[in-house]
Write a structure and sequence with these properties.
two-stranded antiparallel ribbon, about 140 residues, 4-stranded antiparallel sheet, alpha+beta, 6 strands
């Protein structure tokens, strides 16, 4: 994604995630981050790529919430809902415009969780596919 390396896009890109940050978050959340997501955050940190992808050090246009912050917040918010079980074993990488969490499950598939309807809808078969479908360079 050469687009994200352009100087005029600096607010869209964070600092690359370290192996220590990744390992700590995986342990804290009791998950294993999928390799596509790890590859992205090791290169761009939290960055805008068609949607705000949270990591540890995010681009200034995204906000400060880390992947761990988002995951723990949504686990708490959704714990009484039927879809809460899904989030307990996944991690939240983004939030859509309606406030729904976008998650990656342990198989690497990407879903959106609608708390009002209780639906969990598959968005993509992988993080890489999600970015390819949503990222348009402008």
């Amino acid at each position: 994604m050469p687009f994200l390396f352009r100087e005029d896009r600096a607010s869209l890109v964070g600092s690359p995630a370290t192996q220590e940050e990744i390992a700590h978050a995986e342990q804290q959340l009791n998950v294993r981050f999928h390799e596509d997501y790890v590859r992205f955050i090791r290169r761009f940190g939290g960055a805008y790529a068609g949607l705000a992808v949270h990591a540890f050090s995010n681009g200034s246009s995204i906000g400060n919430e880390t992947v761990a912050d988002l995951t723990l917040d949504f686990r708490e918010q959704y714990k009484e809902l039927p879809i809460g079980d899904v989030i307990q074993t996944s991690y939240v990488i983004s939030i859509d415009g309606s406030g729904y969490p976008i998650i990656i499950d342990q198989s690497g598939k990407v879903f959106i969780c609608h708390h009002d309807s209780g639906e969990v809808i598959r968005l993509a078969d992988s993080f890489e596919a999600l970015i390819e479908e949503n990222f348009y360079e402008w």
